[in-house]
Batch of 4 targets.
Target 1
Amino acid sequence: MMRTLIAVCVLAATFAVQAADREAGKKKAAEVCAACHGPDGNSATADFPRIAGQYPDYLSKALRDYKSGARKDPVMSGFAAPLTAQEIQNLAAYFASQKGLTHKY
């Protein structure tokens, strides 16, 4: 019984997704996203979407879809391609936490 419990705990830890790190997302956003979307996701121009305050699940899915090619945009696909799953999660958490149009955390 104890061995089974330990085995289950080890497997759960192996498959657990790390929690999002907003500070890491902020740093990555400054490096990758700020030029178009603004440092906090509130783009200064209508040419680029405002992503501040957007739902984190939406942002994560959009980045994963750009990365996989399921969502087509040559610029965003290029920026999303090198992102890791953790970086996508961090970026989504950071931008979702910013004051914006849709949702406030």
Target 2
Amino acid sequence: MVLTPVLAWAALGIFGAPVGFQTEPVPQVQLKFPPKPADTPPSSDFMAWHGWQYLQGAAATEPQIYDSQGDWGEIQAKYTTASKAEKPAQWKMKIVLFTRTESDDRDGHGVLRENRQTIEATQLNQVLEAIERFKAWVVAKFNGRVVIVPDLSVESEWMRGSAKGNDCWTSGKEFAQRYFEARINGGNYEAEDKQFRGPYNSVFYVVPGSLAESIPATVVNGTPVGGLPVSLLGVDGLPKSFERSLQDLWLDQVSWQARRLGYKSATETAGVGGGDDPWPTVTNLDPASAQTRLSRMSSTLELAPAVADPPVGKTWQLAPAGASMANDPDRGQVLRIVEASGERAGGTTLPARSDGMPIAKLDATSTLSFSVKSTSQDPIAIRLQSSDGKMMWVSIGRDPILVSPVPNVAVVSMPFSPNGQWQKISVDLKKAAAAAGLTNVTQMAIEPTPNAKLAGKMRPDPVDYQFDEFKFSSDAGLPALGPVEASATSDDDEARALYAAKTRTPDTELGKLLKDKSTLVRLNAVDAYKVVKDPSVETALVSESMDLDPTIAALALEALMNEGSDNAVSTVEHSVALGLSDYVKQTAARLLALTHEAKMLEYVSLLFNNPSWQAKLSDVESLALLATPQADIMRQAFVNNKDPEIKLAVTRCADPAQEGDIRMLVWSAVNEPSDMVRADSCIKLIQSPTASARTEGYKGVRDDSEFVRLRVTEYLSASAKEDGREALRLAVADRSPAVRAAALRGFAALDKGATAEEVSNVMDDQDPDVQLALIDLSKKSALKLPQKTVDAMLASPDPEVSSAAKGLGH
């Protein structure tokens, strides 16, 4: 066991020697402005290809339906001069690029599904280049009066979440809170290492893949936080410009900061009144005085852009899709579509009639037919669009079934086998088109459906399809794929997965599915054995615990614990060291810790030296579950780790009744660089049954950081203990109005309320939040306010204050 040196080190009480944390280096990129738009038209052989039979002899033209980079010439010219401006205001921004995400949850039929997305090297460079252009755009747009000062990092560990749960990056709030709360400071605190951790003006984070909806913005530690996918889909299922989304998100955060300072919002549509420069104001993170905030209540902060944004360009083909003509030994010249990138966001527009007439009128020629061959597992689709902009897709193969599919998307899935042989697709669009509102077709494109974009690539290989003979006719179509029906013996992976998802009793067929060739099927079969006990499949579950898919392997460990045999538990024990992924090792440690058996410390402790910060975080939580003296000492040792989220976990798992934890918390409450760690250390100490420990915790109301003082004071308000009265007396005199208001709410929660003397310093306070809290205190504790105070509240320009003051009874 590795316990001896670790326990000895921890027992010495050496809190503060950081160990075991690696920072991912950020690749360096140069600022590159896009070249002037020069749309490269399709080749002549593409336009003249014999396969466009739907044109019926009409001349071909190529619609430009995809957005492309606009003309950045004006921005580039302005940047050249504006970048030389002296003493610009600084917008401090934390930016984190998450390069690996995975989520799992059940779809509407109960099938468990995984979604993994990555940002690989080429795409990472593209994102970094976009951020460089965003910085240049800010300088140019506002004439060098403000610059983005980024604190950029790359998070390469897998971020896991539930697709429907609040812990996923798509939810915005819970994931952002969990990841950033210990990593960014909300107030000024100068740590011994002099490393800047905040406060920031705002935070961005970028996640891989596509999303159909924007990630909701949130606030962490008093800082606006916003997330962006690499590809955000519009209502038409097409990707929006990442750079434009980046710009829009930042301007929203500028408005948030303006509202914090008392303005209604910020706007870039008007000039600056009186020639004032708004940027020193909006970048200032100190709270505005009450008088200043009140004077701004009816005003908008005018940002005065110096140059317009580049107009969005248009193109007929969007990367990473590529179209070319290829020679087929059986058919001669055919159309080839290739997606070589890991991102599924591109597409190719097919020729339309140059006379503007529809290529199909669906009341007469509703059947689209073409030939196709491929060996790609990832489906591709034909997008059809009508003259009034309505659209639908014909998916070649089943459209991906998702936990949260794109709403209101019309897709017809046609049977297709990726066996490299030519196959005929013939689909009667009449019924589906009527439901989608299409009466004709004027444009077609080859691209992934919106759901396929959200699903991402199923295989790392390029998506490669060949096509021939597109035409519309009145012929009968072939049957489309219908709803999935559960079957253990179907050739359809979805049918077998649904069977596994629905089976919750011992079943021979279910056991066979543990060895299925499909990852989706094995995932659902293994998941079933979390509740189904069947000793006959134990050997298969042991095998699945070493599956290359981390989720399958982790579920197999849960299933083995459900079996409960000595061999099954032994497999879980050994998986802490031998699991093929960190997630599997973490799962094994957690399952063993949930037994609450002291002997499991031997295995749980193996995560201590794991290089993954998430493995260490999991170890802290698992050690807390064991709750033995040795486990507690080892858990305390993790406070020496440099990663702030691990330190926060150590703090929150601490037992303030234990002397060792108290010593650790007292040290952390004063010395930890992270605001959240210091604040929660104080809160834990306040919960201690030891009076001297509580005294140390109450000192948090005097921390250098406003955020810490506010969080501790808000805790005092929520806990409502008379023991905290002296701390509330200090907090109500704080220089921060937010802290003063929280202190008043704390007094209001106490049975004895507050005396006039205890809150005398806020009787003339003009801050609306403080006034509202004082009004609430007066009503709850029968505290009589001076008439002068009441009159000032009734005359407040803030309507909420003046309205609340009417009930004071004077």
Target 3
Amino acid sequence: MDDKTRPDETGYRFIGKPMPRKEDARLITGKGRFTDDFNLDGQTYAVMVRSPYPHARIVEIDMAAAKKMPGVLGVFTGADCAADKLGPIPHDPVPKTKFDMKLTGPNGGAVFIGPNVLLPADKARHVGEAVAMVVAETKAQAMDAAEAVEVRYEELPFVLHSEDAMKPGAPVLWHEVPNNVTVETVFGNVEATDQAFARAAHVVAKNFHIGRVTGVPLEPRAALGHYDTATGRYTLYAGSGGAVRQKNELVQVLGIAPENLRVLSHDVGGNFGTRNRTFVEFGLVLWASRKIGRPVKFTATRSEAFLSDYQGRDLVTKVELALDDKHRFIAMRATNISNVGARCVSLSPLSKGSGLIPGSYAIPATTLRAMAVFTNTMPTNAYRSSGRPEVTFAIERLVDAAAAQLGVDRIQLRRKNLVPPKAMPYRNSVGMLYDSGRYQENMDRAMEIADWKGFAARRREAKRRGKLLGRGLANYVESSIGAPREQARIKVQPQDESGPARVDVVIGTQSSGQGHETSFAQVISDLLDVPAESVRVIFGDTDVVKVGGGSHSGRSMRHAATVFSKAAVDLIAKGKAIAAIVMGAAPESVSFADGRFVSRDTNLTFDFLELAAEAARHKLPDALKDGIAVVTDNEMHEPVFPNGTAICEVEVDPDTGEIAITRYASIDDVGRCINPLIVHGQTHGAIAQGVGQAMWEQIFLDPDSGQPLTGSLMDYAMPRADVLPSFKTEIAEVLSPTNPLGIKAGGEGGTTAAPAVMVSAILDALGELGVRDITMPATPYAIWTAIQKAKAQ
């Protein structure tokens, strides 16, 4: 028995083991099945005509010249969509689980989301919005024809920033929302908060804007649609965060029965939330395929993705912290204003952030005003750790500011106010119930692995070289909720023409690079006591997967493992019934132990794979005719709260503003860790993503024209391996009481703390020069400018 199969002290053979990912062999040898890898006979190509204006009335679309060009099969507009009675994409942006923060429109009314039509017939509401589609024999022909489509626009006043959109007289995007505010909800206890502030010994206030970024997945979004005239059935190939959701939304757009659409979402080249929601091109290629009678393919260019992918962050947060004379936190006020863009696609960031305003700290009274505002920008969506980095940034920067204002040690201030383990489960002051965690232990351990005590010597050494060394620390708590329903269909298959004996597992949550094929197999292997290599995980095909919430909000492993645990009980029971028939034994005499079905009535024993082979040779009663197979549903609403601490050190050149990240350490409590190798990899990627926003990444719109100035990887800087240090990360496993395996989530914590810890470190380095604040991204120019302003003052 090797290390991979030797049970540890928990009794698990595979859970907790750092098993290499089985899917990597396929992916790195070019055998992946990404959207653009699929091609169909007779395939044609779609190209979008996009608005060059942030806000403009569509007066006329002249398609005559384009239609006459070589290879052009059709030019389609919003008027055509309306004539064919295509519905809007039924985005459901308000989170619906039992414990989500309940966002409402102003005065408790409904949230207006704006009709998410495939092509608008009235106005373009952001630069890059598709206003027409050209379909041609080749992509080059479609691109040429798209340039020949003449759209006459009437330019309208536009607004880009959420606070500007709320001002009297601001340009209005939707007449139904004359002040552009679609969400305004107050959470917490206003009276208790006001009373605490009135008696506070100290009050600290800060305003922040956490800017707009985009996911930049390795695979630009693509879609291939096919309408079969013989069967009346549509097929869509499109990488996404969940094939089932895409199907359920697109059948409403097309006005067809669910059985007439199949969605295939196999390998997905990155998501980060960008692909969680349906894009207009998914519906357009399906509709166009029916119109022209041939398959239609769309693949975005990288620049097109910068213009029209769903984007992330863009939150204005205004926060105040009240402290008593012993430096205890007694109350907090916050106003969070989310820029949802031209249409409301997702309110997950605002909702999830709302529940975590107090962060890791015991703050008895809190009031939050949560708002969402329309602007002439691309819609925002959940982006890695949806909403949590923003509020973590606010509370951690506020605590640092409080320490500076009071002249106290920032670590001691945190120790005094962290939620203690004995308080768990802890209900915070806006109503979220933190399930478990040891926040002070995380901080202590992070300081230990970061060599906190050695910092002073490193700072002196840096100063001798003319550099400024700074150190940051940020605690975080985040939430994982996500769509509540999941289904598993598990069948033990005997050897056949398709391969050796195996366990087929159909699941509705799907991978966009997280290693589900490996980690899900580890869970099944332990629950059923079968070899991990015998488990085949199947997802991303709605003809096979009927139910499931997809991959978002860190939900995948927790929901999958929970429904697997329920399914295993049913599968073992069914195995016992079949084993009794195969053995000729009394059903009550059969038991399952150490991976084998045994009976006191016979010396025959079978594991699951052997039993499936034996059962195939027997005639089973109708109740068991499908063999060792079960379909199990589960609905889980309880959130879990991963948490941790990040510490980093940065070295700044005061003459140039150049910055080097010299150390980065983190402790992340993910609950039960199924595969540490995968979790560490996700942690590293998550840190890089959060550091990217802190240091380089920004969707920048020219305030005078509304034009995006970051339209390619030439102008949108991203983290690279050579600008990041070797991370020192450790996993804490404080099990959650909310699910059978105690899982929390492991893919987003690194991002959650990174912006806060990076800015904390930079300001610590620049403190002696009088720099007290800096706006992300903290580029060398931004740092140099801050230094010059401080010198001038």
Target 4
Amino acid sequence: MGKHDDLYKAAALLPAIGDKGALLVSGTDKPNVMTIGWAMTSVMWFKNLFIAPVRKSRHTHCLLETHGEFTVFVPSGDMNQVLGICGTISGRDTDKAATCGLDLVPSTVVQVPRINAPGTVVECRVIYKTDFDNDALDDAVRMRYYSGDDTGNMHTLYFGEILAVHEQP
């Protein structure tokens, strides 16, 4: 097995994440499931990375700050309704996994659980994070994604070292 095999597997998921979205899980005692539609993969510091942007206002942001681990699940089938619910309801008030009937099971490497359903799971440990700088953004991007009240609700980029990638039947 090559040193970048997991990176190639994770990178191959990016078109599906951009088209349909994926589910990011963080937290251990009360894990939260959040829909993501933006992601990146990279090699930095001789490590394979999955980079997930999470807005500071999201419950998942707090969980990532506390636990420093996450899993990403990219479904192989239609989960549009689940992706919609997990992208609109706050995990502060609702157990989204229970609401959506998602089966959370122990991950193979990280302490954060993974979604047990047909698809691909990426397990990550945060090794770096950085906040978006509103002043450094291109004006068109700022106007489209961070206008009005969103200027104080920028994303934090979580650089997760890819520890495992596996497909689930």
